[in-house]
């Protein structure tokens, strides 16, 4: 009975929170519509609507920049990051609408304005790229059936390589042959040194797995039964290492886009303030 009441309370809280989210979204859309409508009315009266859209655009850009700060302040109970992400997406979409309402062209005139436009477009493109990564990469990583921390990948690869080399040495010692050893030195060692086939992994290809299978098949005909057992162990480690490479490829892309998006956004913000300064100087 207690569990049933708890479930009912949780459901009600979820419904309330969903309604708050919808109310906030609706309020935001109404506010943005009023800003655009007011700017349109000012244009009809031959006024300066760019002041309204410009300052509104500045406010939205500052909010979007603040999102990155909020992500790093995880100890502060100021709205969950997931909710900030939704806000970031909504504000980002409106930012595009506001921008074109402000400049009224794809590419404005003037060196400063052109540079600002290019940075704005790059910020939007990298932002959309990041949204795509955040939606697809976690699901793809889950499908690999292994979990690994990005910063530990180099040490994990090193451990796998050490295991393979121990197997090679043990095989050579017990069988008194160097067939598998030479195959490792001439071929397999290249694969175990560092992550491979990164671009193919990113696009969902199976080149790494096929390469491992081909290298296994090409040598097994020259091995005796005992050596083949060691080869099977090496193949399993190679396939595991291939999954690590998959994680390295996707997690690297997920992290690398931030090193594009954030600096571009910051440079854009600097030019925005410079643009604002110039406009106010000319206005005086």
Quick structural summary:
With 284 residues, the chain is mainly alpha-helical.
Question: What is the percent of helical residues?
Answer: over 70%
Whole-angstrom Rg: 28 Å
**If you average the pLDDT, what whole number results?**
82
Describe the main β-sheet briefly.
Answer: none
How far from one another are the termini? Answer: 72 Å
Unreliable segments of 5+ consecutive residues: none
Please count the helical segments.
Answer: 10
Category by helix and strand content: mainly alpha
Proportion of residues in extended strands: under 5%
Number of domains: 2
> How would you sum up the global shape?
elongated
Report on this model:
This protein is an all-alpha fold. It folds into two domains: 2-104; 150-256, no CATH class. The chain is 84% helix and 0% strand. The longest helix is centred in the first third of the chain and has 43 residues, at 2-44. The protein starts with a helix and ends with a helix. The model has no long low-confidence stretch (mean pLDDT 82).
Tell me the layout of helices and strands.
Layout: H1 2-44, H2 49-72, H3 81-103, H4 111-143, H5 153-175, H6 179-193, H7 198-202, H8 207-220, H9 225-256, H10 258-283
């Amino acid at each position: 009975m207690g569990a049933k009441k708890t479930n009912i309370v949780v459901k009600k809280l979820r419904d309330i929170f969903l309604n708050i989210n919808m109310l906030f979204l609706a309020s935001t859309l109404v506010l943005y519509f009023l800003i655009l409508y007011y700017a349109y009315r000012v244009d009809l009266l031959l006024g300066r609507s760019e002041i309204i859209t410009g300052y509104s655009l500045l406010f939205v850009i500052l909010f979007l920049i603040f999102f990155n700060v909020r992500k790093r302040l995880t100890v502060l109970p100021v709205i969950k990051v997931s909710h900030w992400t939704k806000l970031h997406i909504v504000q980002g979409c409106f930012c595009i609408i506001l921008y074109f309402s402000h400049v009224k062209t794809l590419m404005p005139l003037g060196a400063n304005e052109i540079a600002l436009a290019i940075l704005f477009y790059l910020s939007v493109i990298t932002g959309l790229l990041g949204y795509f990564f955040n939606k697809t990469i976690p699901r793809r990583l889950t499908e690999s059936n292994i979990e690994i921390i990005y910063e530990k990948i180099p040490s994990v690869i090193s451990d796998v390589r050490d295991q393979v080399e121990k197997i090679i040495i043990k095989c050579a010692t017990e069988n008194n042959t160097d067939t598998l050893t030479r195959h490792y030195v001439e071929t397999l060692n290249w694969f175990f040194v560092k992550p491979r086939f990164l671009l193919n992994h990113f696009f969902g290809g199976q080149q790494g797995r096929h390469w491992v299978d081909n290298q296994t098949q090409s040598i097994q005909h020259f091995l005796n039964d005992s050596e083949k057992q060691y080869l099977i162990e090496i193949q399993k480690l190679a396939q595991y290492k291939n999954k690590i490479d998959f994680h390295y490829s996707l997690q690297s892309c997920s992290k690398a886009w931030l090193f594009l998006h954030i600096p571009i956004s910051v440079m854009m913000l600097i030019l925005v303030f410079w643009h604002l300064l110039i406009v106010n100087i000319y206005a005086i």
